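Cross-check.
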Amino acid sequence: MSSNTPDIVTPASAGNFRGYHQSQPADIDEEIARVGSGTSGGEYLRCFWHPVFITSELGDLPQAIKILGEELVLFRYSGDKLGLVHKYCPHRRASLEYGRCEDRGIRCCYHGWLFAPDGEILETPGEAPDAEPAKVVRERTRLGAYPVIEYKGLIFAYMGPPDQMPEFPVYDVLEIEDMTNRPYKAPYTCNWIQVLDAIMDPVHTTFLHSQNSHPQFSEGMSEIGELKFYERNENHFLGSSTRRVDDNAWVRMNELILPNFTQAGSAFAADGTQSRYFGRSCFTRWVVPVDDENSIAYAWANFGERGDPHQYNTKEGCELIEQGEVLDRSPEEKQRYPADSEAVEGMGSISTHKGENLMPTDRGISLYRRRIRQQIKDLKQGERPPQPWRHGENSVRTYGQDTVLNLSPKDGENDRKYLAEIGAAVMDMQFQYEEQGNEARDAAIIEKLKDIETNGIS
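Predicted model, tokenized:
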């Protein structure tokens, strides 16, 4: 028989092929995926501060940006003061991207209208100052504008109701002595939820970043750990994975504070082979929606003794920390060595979430999505979502970290069960000290971890 003769497929043998019956795509989870003004998810997201730009990238010219589906212009005025306004001039809709930055605000290039950073119309120079139409428009019309704050090299904006603006949150990891925090950004051409999901998915680290192509972080991550998920204070979610690396137990903690703040363990400082006591997150990061089909991770990469090694304090190093590979790669490289971008962008511009089959290892994702939906429902009833939790005067407590303890397997005991006990003990101990000040808390945690390593779990 000719080698070109095709294999014969009969109707009977084709019975298990179900493409035809599954050719209609599943539905999008509209409630949490859509981010525009007036949408359920968009109104929810507007209850919080979000990073929108890197300070060092804003020069003396206005910068057009898009956040939460809104076209905006970020600019400097009166030296280093910052303004954030809607892109289009309310006179004839010219773009303020081409405006002129002045001491009192931004002036439209088309007819010279001058706007204060809060949107007040200060001048309408083409009209007589005392002309009634000019007076009326200055009194009744404002350019849309938002409050902004610059903090440690990132610019944050609050885009919600002005009379309900929350306190700007400061996180404990940003107050660690001798830690270098480098701002970076990473764009994703997909919806924010599919990017955010990864932080509460410890198993993806084992396959995408370890077993699939080559170890993108450390070989120790190729082991599937004992998983445990925590839900704290209504908006704080933690996912721990405790792995065995030789005689060591490696407890790695990822975290999410709603709606989009994320931290994890280190990318390159820990591999499970050396003792490490409450080493902190490789990044302090927000997944910010640009619009329904695009998002940007704005973050600080953290370097130092309790962060990642200073050798990664470069643009390329930050990209490796963010997703395991550099961002600018050829299509072939992306297929051979996929990283987070390929995994989440490959789902499509907006994943059809309702076609998923979530498993027990996806519990962290189920928990946080359920909480977002509940908070969206509460917001519709007039109840604002909780802000990041503070203990007294302390900064916001976070837990993204690595701890590696020299605790050998016990003879005759199920080591998976023992690893789970170690992971739970490490986390419970950290909760015990969370009301202390930053330095006292960290010192108490590290001392207790060393005690566990020496004396075992009590």
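The mean pLDDT is 94. The radius of gyration is 25 Å. Passed to J.P. for a second look.
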